[in-house]
Write the structure tokens for this entry.
Amino acid sequence: MAISLASQPTLRWDGDISGSLWMIDQTLLPLEFREIECRDVETVWEAIRSLRVRGAPAIGSAAAYGVVVGMQTISVDSDAAGFAERLVQVTEYLATSRPTAVNLFWALDRMKRVVAELDGSTRAKIERLLKEARTIEIEDREMCAAIGRHGAELLEDGQGVLTHCNAGALATAGDGTALSVFFAAAAAGKRLHVFADETRPLLQGARLTSWELTRRGIDTTLICDSMAGWVMREGKIHAVVTGADRIAANGDTANKIGTYSVAQLAKVHGIPFYVAAPSSTFDMSLASGDEIPIEERAREEITCGFGKQTAPDEVAVYNPAFDVTPAELIAAIITERGLIRPVNSRTVVDMIGA
Ligand code: MRU
């Protein structure tokens, strides 16, 4: 178990165009650290669907490599039409894995675009797809670092900060978005105390965030989601930083269920609520958060989490995996290009473009 994320990335490609995608199986953490190999597109789809790989930027990277894996089955003699047909099949299939994180669709569009106008052999096209997937991964790493640099300026030495879900290295190809801010602040000599919300129902905060932070030597305290308001009231939290799965053109932000409640609590207690996200998480085609599709997941995640039944079979269950925090509750969005502050349609367009 003494493996650090620095030596073991969340996902990696092994080999050339006939290689395979490897990823940490996050459903096993923190008890077991194991990588899985994805040699076919169905395995990539299942890994995204069941949250073996999760977090918006990591889903985008996994899907990009998933396209390469999916195209490996095509014959080298196939013509341009056959290649195009298989590419549509693979990308449309991967697009059905999860609905909310826009990075998935952004990455698939990017993969389709780079070969759309490309003449050449099937091999040359798959090589181009692999190059693009690698570029998406590298860019993601750079975006995380830049988000860390911009966000660290918002935090002061000695502060208590709260985060929800996991927006760390496990959710990206780099150091994370929200957690990158904490790592950069710590590297700049600021001593932070991070409170990690447990994040019901799948416990990404408990299983993943507290695992990452403690491994990186960050002073961390795990709390149940229902404790956040009280801990704020006790004066222990001075800022909240979360990630995002999709941000609409007006700044409304979808993130893990429970984020909206945290943002409301922060407002009541006069605490700044920050969102850290790369430009690839913005969906400028949506005017507001009302249009963001919210994933609903299986009832068993709530009634029978981690194999132990905790509710009667006959009870009705509602399990939205994300919620939307309105722009007016967000003090700033920390992007790789800089801070969006205040957050509204004009400032978002100024930073991201139309
Ligand atoms: O369901 P998940 O675990 O994929 O949800 C992840 C989140 O909500 C993260 O906060 C978000 O994707 C940002 S990751 C940098």
User: Anything to note?
Assistant: The two ends are 46 Å apart (CA to CA). The first strand starts at residue 11 and ends at 14. The chain has two domains: 11-144, 149-352. Residues 122-152 form the longest helix (31 residues).
